[in-house]
């Protein structure tokens, strides 16, 4: 088959005729899954993703959109090498960031769905490598690059895209673990490091608040959940906290950092303490914004106060 980035295929991917688009997608999948395929050049990848983006743009019925979003995300997992798959993911994020502001409100929900499917496929890809450090770090570089979805200093980056990634991140890590066998523990510090850095550097207060409410607070709370042998009825004041998503499976199948060899899950409360220390240390960096540093220190203080309160309660 010819190079999938060539003009005819890109044109067919964005055709107004569904049958033509379907054939183009199948041809694309076939090519990218061939053992001889290697990553395209940046220019070729951009051209290819332009076609894929508008292929999805043309899908107009919910069931068609769901099927196509799954098919497009599955391409990541069919590519022969992890290196080439990561290059394909890089092309995806660059295209999404580039085209996001042009998506009208009637199409926005389906692109939210596509982003979710690609985030999940990304975690599944990394999980298949046993969360190998080299690949996790490369994926983080993709996310935090100037053309990625969580760069702290790119004024052209659409906030709504960043917020969506923040909102679904923990949930999709957990889902990838639940759907995997064997289930290798997710390296939470490695996976969340770009977001901890974003929290320390962002000048957008709403972005910081979203990070704390959708990522840090739910995870810290979940990692401190009572065990079966402990009192599961917290004091009334603590019941008033916003209910966090159920992250039990994630907390039971997580570790701190990625490694080149499989490792065992880390006890949730031990992992919680280490993550809190990492947040504190990142806040201490000289490039952290002063206002953000104070907020991140407060996360640590609140957790320590909660721990002390729990000890007093246990003593009584």
Detailed description of the structure:
The chain is mostly helical and about 325 residues long. About 70% of the residues lie in helices and about 0% in strands. The protein is built from 14 helices and two strands, in the order H-H-H-H-H-H-H-H-E-H-H-H-H-E-H-H. A two-stranded parallel ribbon has the order 1-2. Helix 9 packs parallel to helix 13. It is globular, with a radius of gyration of 21 Å. The chain starts with 6 loop residues before the first helix and ends with a helix. Mean pLDDT is about 90; it is low at about 235-240. It comes from Sistotremastrum niveocremeum HHB9708. It is found in: Nucleus.
* Main sheet overview: 2 strands, parallel
Residue stretches low in confidence (pLDDT < 50, at least 5 long) are 235-242
Radius of gyration: 21 Å
Q: How would you name the oligomeric state of the polypeptide chains in this document?
A: single chain
Shape: globular
Give the H and E element order: HHHHHHHHEHHHHEHH
At a glance:
The chain has 316 residues and is an all-alpha fold.
Key features of this structure:
316 residues, mainly alpha, two-stranded parallel sheet, 68% helix
Helix and strand arrangement:
Layout lengths: L6 H7 L4 H15 L9 H17 L3 H17 L3 H18 L5 H24 L4 H12 L14 H20 L7 E2 H14 L3 H19 L12 H4 L8 H5 L1 E2 L12 H16 L6 H26 L1
Parallel strand pairs: 1-2
Helix pairs in contact: 1-2, 1-3, 3-5, 4-5, 4-6, 5-6, 5-7, 6-8, 7-9, 8-10, 9-10, 9-13, 10-13, 13-14
